[in-house]
Specification:
Helix content is 27%, strand content 26%. The protein is an alpha+beta fold and 364 residues long. Strand 4 (140-143) and strand 5 form a beta hairpin.
Length: 364
């Protein structure tokens, strides 16, 4: 292949693409994303609900007839998944570069397509993370008319609310009777009382603490916490390391199995503003992730498996498959020529038992 002198003089070496901002948002506790059940039909799924019993059997005389028992009341709860859909046109000029015999042009086309599609598909993964963490932070999600996830109810046209009780929010109906920023707040007793209430109400142990970035400093200046740590050398050494900002709070502290910092749980909104999901003084207590109390529900979507358009409905159905959760496919466009990539997701991180979670504000 020959090149004109102007082409050779204007040649610029093609280096590896520079990623100025890392792709994707952090996921401090990815175990929550793996809690999946059977797929929804389209975007809907139904759960049966019931209450376990704490009552005891009744005493009866040995020769007396059996006493009549009672059936367990069973209810139903329907869930509608979120649906996210976006398309990405790939212009004909990029397709020409990809088909070019010139490796330089081909590499530029490949790089452009790889970068664009990677960022585009990552947006769907980011939505899953942000929706999950926002739901854990307070049991609610908000969306505006354009479909953007919002940091609060301001401007929302859709609110998803799992119904966390007021007694499980903020100061937990007076259990946290003194702000944790006060050195005289009995933090170990607060956590003990919360665990007791969790046992009384649901039987789920509070095993995970999702904490804002002010919590370590509250603990480091708290008289009761320091007294507790002085009697527990294993936690004391780890806490000294954590309170200096060098790592997370030690697992097992105050009887909580996992301490997860949430300062890196955020997403970028439609205006380019980074939105912190958990407040600095927030503390969320919940069980370890399992399907008994939470689930990432995935819906199903019919997706074509052939690149060309079909002539009739029957032909389209014959070439389609049912895809669970995220999906993607491409179709040709003709005016102008190019390819349109379609991506989507049908899902919802759902707190099945809203009484299993405590979303607290410890500085008030």
């Amino acid at each position: 292949m020959s090149f004109a002198l102007q082409q050779l003089l204007g040649y610029v070496a093609l280096g590896k693409p520079i990623e100025k901002v890392k792709n994707g948002i952090p996921d401090p506790l990815p175990e929550f994303s793996s809690i999946k059940g059977s797929p929804a039909i389209a975007d809907k799924k139904r759960f049966m609900t019931y209450r376990g019993t704490r009552k005891v059997a009744r005493r009866a005389e040995y020769d007396a007839p059996h006493l009549r028992g009672t059936n367990t009341p069973v209810g139903e709860q329907d869930v509608i998944c979120l649906s996210a859909k976006e398309l990405l046109p790939v212009p004909g000029s990029t397709l020409i570069a990809l088909r070019s015999l010139d490796k330089y042009q081909q590499d530029m086309g490949k790089d452009w397509l790889a970068i664009t599609t990677r960022n585009f598909t990552t947006r769907f993964d980011n939505l899953r993370k942000a929706q999950r963490w926002q739901m854990l932070a307070g049991g609610k999600n908000w969306f505006n008319a354009a479909g953007d996830l919002l940091p609060s109810s301001s401007g929302a046209v859709l609110t998803i609310d799992v119904g966390i009780a007021a007694t499980h929010l903020d100061q937990a109906n007076g259990i946290i009777d003194l702000a944790w920023s006060n050195s005289q707040a009995n933090i170990p007793l607060h956590i003990q009382k919360l665990n007791q209430q969790a046992a009384f109400q649901t039987g789920y142990d509070l095993e995970v603490a999702l904490y804002g970035q002010s919590i370590p400093s509250f603990l480091s200046t708290n008289d009761y916490a320091m007294d507790y740590l002085a009697r527990n050398p294993r936690f004391n050494d780890a806490f000294t390391f954590a309170s200096a900002g060098a790592g997370p709070l030690p697992d097992g502290l105050f009887g909580i199995k996992r301490w997860i910092p949430t300062n890196k749980a955020f997403y970028e909104d439609a205006d380019g503003t980074n939105r912190q999901i958990f407040a600095d003084d927030s503390l969320v207590l919940c069980p370890l992730p399992n399907q008994d109390w939470c689930e990432e529900v995935e819906g199903t979507t019919m997706v074509p498996t052939t690149f060309n358009a079909t002539a009739d409905v029957a032909g389209a159905l014959d070439t389609a498959i049912l895809k669970q959760g995220m999906y993607g496919y491409g179709l040709p466009q003709h005016n102008p020529f190019g390819v349109t990539l379609f991506f989507g997701d049908v899902f919802l991180f759902f707190i099945k038992n809203a009484d299993a979670i405590w979303a607290l504000d410890v500085d008030f």
